[in-house]
Design goal:
This protein is an all-beta fold. It has two domains: 30 residues, Rubrerythrin, domain 2 (Single Sheet); 77 residues, Immunoglobulin-like (Sandwich). The chain contains no helices and twelve strands. The chain has a four-stranded antiparallel sheet, with no helix packed on it. Strands 2-1-5 form a three-stranded antiparallel sheet, with no helix packed on it. Strand 1 and strand 2 form a beta hairpin. The radius of gyration is 15 Å and the shape is globular. The structure holds fe (ii) ion.
Length: 129
């Protein structure tokens, strides 16, 4: 287990993040939780790979908007969160709700080497390239 890994219970749908990797594997609903591998290549009809736009210290991450196909944000299918991680250890997450735009804005002191992840409730975890 590694810090910041995301695991999902395939029975009840609970999603967790590892903050302290010292513990053994996590059991939920009587079985091991599934490690969500961050995906970088779109294989669905929607766009999922998070796109980072940097203007000075302002960092915008969108899911499909800048590709002309915003990811759905309905009650059944939506982006649950968008987060960024930078080289100096910054780590910020914005939770989204259905009806929101699939996008989040952050203020970052040193945006060089920034990575973004997003989590779709149906299609799982995605990471910027
Ligand atoms: Fe999706």
């Amino acid at each position: 287990m590694e810090k910041k890994e995301i695991y999902k219970c395939e029975v009840c749908g609970k999603v967790i993040e590892i903050l302290n990797p010292a513990a053994p594997e996590t059991i939920c609903c009587g079985q091991s939780m599934k490690l969500m591998d961050p995906q970088t290549t779109d294989w669905t009809k929607e766009k999922h790979v998070p796109k980072i736009t940097i203007e000075g210290n302002k960092v915008t991450v969108d899911v499909g908007i800048s590709m002309g196909t915003p990811h759905p944000m309905t009650n059944e299918h939506w982006i649950m969160w968008i987060e960024i991680m930078c080289k100096d250890g910054c780590y910020e997450r914005r939770f989204l709700n259905s009806g929101d735009e699939p996008k989040a804005t952050f203020t970052v002191a040193k945006p060089e080497g920034l990575i973004a992840r997003e989590y779709c409730n149906i299609h799982g975890l995605w990471i910027s390239e």
